[in-house]
Design brief:
217 residues; alpha/beta; two-stranded antiparallel ribbon; globular; Rossmann fold
């Protein structure tokens, strides 16, 4: 059964994040995100199976569109890799929708850890598409990409559910990875204010924050 939604594509995603209670306003210090006026918990999507399925479909649509362009902006890939932890459920949803094999990097807790650093079946020389839920600084994707490259895999592209527009795109480009977000923070807050779901003051705070953290990226 498909979700019935009034909006399509990234606008549907904006609405489902809001309806899921994934968006909060205030002042938040989480990880490398300091004094942010908005907190977005994209992982709440996993509690809505139909929404999670739709996200997998959106990723499939995005990759088909990017690879089908006259000048494709995404390289052909044979494997998809979820970035722990937030990207694992999204990569799984996409893998099931698109029938693409999935792996994921699994850093060892210690030198005595018997688990492999990359879970799943892969072959050196294959190209991997990285998938994550949210990107701020980009360190998780860069670290995952480095582990996969050390194993002989090619990493050229990363798809994320939401780009907080804090300069991660430029950092990934410097590492040889193209960033493909389904939704950007600016698009999200534009949608919310246009539908009177947030105040003009909250909207202005988000725009100011993005300007200060590299939101033009």
């Amino acid at each position: 059964m498909r979700i019935h939604e009034p909006d399509s594509g990234n606008l549907w995603l904006a609405r489902i994040l809001w309806d899921s209670g994934a968006i909060q306003f205030g002042e938040f210090n989480i990880g490398t995100t300091m004094r942010s006026p908005v907190y977005i918990n994209t992982r709440l999507v996993i509690s809505n199976p139909r929404a999670l399925r739709r996200v997998g479909e959106l990723i499939a649509e995005q990759t088909r569109t990017l690879s089908g362009m006259l000048r494709p902006s995404i390289d052909p890939f044979e494997v998809v890799a979820g970035v722990p932890i937030g990207g694992l459920h999204l990569a799984t949803a996409y893998s099931l929708i698109a029938d693409v094999p999935m792996i994921y990097p699994h850093p060892r807790a210690s030198e005595h850890d018997i688990y492999p650093e990359i879970e799943g079946v892969y072959f050196p020389g294959q190209t991997v598409l990285l998938i994550d839920d949210l990107i701020t600084g980009g360190s998780s994707i860069i670290q995952s990409g480095a582990m996969l490259r050390e194993a002989g895999l090619n990493v050229q592209d990363a798809v994320v559910l939401l780009d907080r527009q804090a300069g991660a795109g430029a950092r990934l480009r410097a590492d040889g990875i193209r960033l493909h977000p389904l939704l950007k923070l600016e698009t999200l807050v534009n949608y919310l204010v246009a539908h009177e779901l947030i105040t003009q003051a909250q909207y202005a705070q988000c725009l100011t924050y993005m300007e200060q953290t590299g939101g033009g990226d």
